[in-house]
Amino acid sequence: MFARVYGATILGLQGNMITVETDIANGLPAFEIVGMAATSVKESKERVRASMKNSGYEFPMRRITLNLAPAELKKDSTGLDLAIAIGIMVSSGQIPPAKTEGCLFVGELSLDGNIRPVHGILSMLIQAMDEGFHTVFVSEENAAEALLCKDMTVYAVTSLRQVIRHLTEAKKLEPAAVASVAPEEHVYSADFSEVQGQFLAKRALEIAAAGGHNILMIGPPGSGKTMLAKRLPSILPPMNLQESLEVTKIYSVAGLFRQDRMMTERPFRSPHHTISSNGLIGGGTIPKPGEVTLAHNGVLFLDELPEFPRSVLEVMRQPLEDGQVHIARVNASLTYPARCMLVAAMNPCCCGNYGSDEICTCTAGEIRRYVRKISGPLLDRIDLHVQVNRPLYAELVSAVPQESSAAIRERVLAARQRQKERLAPYHLVCNAHMGHRELRETCHITKEAQELLQQVFDSLKLSARSYDRIIKVSQTIADLAGDRDIEAKHVGEAVSYRNKLQRT
């Protein structure tokens, strides 16, 4: 008898509906799975056989042929176990075919018939709703994530026996319900009010947050670079619904989603400098998201920037420019979102004391080699370079209250609102995302500011990319000040944040 049920897998961040076609015929007992099944799917034969027997149901000792369509798509997910088991039950006449119409079955089976969770449920269900499915059976651990899809009827099940008894109407299940959750209020453990002094660095971080710009902090050890970076999320604007959905899907696919609501706090990722290229941008035989994608719509913090292998840093160029990562492998070619703020920190030299009050023990050659670990093209993609000096004793012991993150955030939100209104026709949300066309059409530069830009361009021998980035930062400074036009004072401040590294 022929039967058709549906499961799902993911490829990249996209959910894919898999048609599980089962045919049971007379002949010598056999169990064949066709349709580009990976090893993890082929091994499901033994999991399904054992779980059916241990759940008290008959496994048909006949010739079983199972096809996973579309056949050209590589299937690499243990989440198809439940759909395969239900397909065999329908094909062998133990479940009426009509009971599975419009239903999706996603879960990994254990040998005793229990159902285990899988990654990427949210992506699967979003695609399932688009294709007209109305009911899904998932493990209890996946239920909270599945309930984010409001229009799906979700059954949270613990065992194969529960699913079969529901479909045969031996014991009906109640749909899972959304738990009543109080509105979430973000209370950040780190606040800018705890940072004494460092007014220049705070100003630069405020500009970076207001315009979504990349920033590099350069200073001796202990000057507070890491402390400042960790407080940046506390002044960023909240994510909108679309951004929250994107981030939640990414973390679901990566297996890092551990809550019962969509993620609303912007990600902050801080990988160690021993990370590989694949760990940073994603990769593998079946590509998985890397740190750049996990930081999408949030902050990617690279501490001790020159300690990262140069080959790893160079793969950052395209994501910083395009906001996407393109990964091509034999099995798949995928595009992951990677629109994040890069926040980097480094010492000015090997010993860290160059340019400070302490004595630098590095030779000129050592300083040059240390700084040249970071390529010019990569530095050119970082909008703001700020010097972070060690705080003075008087600043550390001062009793004068420092400005809080909440106060800074108000200015950032006001600036973002101006950008949102100005860039609405282009479907952009902040100045850092503008291209050259948007710059020409939306940025109004006064004559004095244009003259200053010409002087800076000629004297510093800037590239076209640097020119555009100075205008973007200038526009952000104008937005923070509430000014419509870019004036000379805005350009002057933007230029002061250009490359601070001595590379010669």
Automatic annotation (TrEMBL):
Span of the secretion signal? none
The residues covered by the AAA+ ATPase domain are 211-392
Q: Which domain of life is it from?
A: Bacteria
Stored InterPro entries: AAA+_ATPase, CHLI-like, Mg_chelat-rel, Mg_chelat-rel_C, Mg_chelatse_chII-like_cat_dom, P-loop_NTPase, Ribosomal_Su5_D2-typ_SF, Ribsml_uS5_D2-typ_fold_subgr
**Gene3D superfamilies, per database record:** 3.30.230.10, P-loop containing nucleotide triphosphate hydrolases
Query: Can you tell me which family this protein belongs to?
Result: Belongs to the Mg-chelatase subunits D/I family. ComM subfamily.
Name by which UniProt lists this protein:
YifB family Mg chelatase-like AAA ATPase
Q: Which organism is it from?
A: Megasphaera hominis
Taxonomy of the source species? Bacteria, Bacillati, Bacillota, Negativicutes, Veillonellales
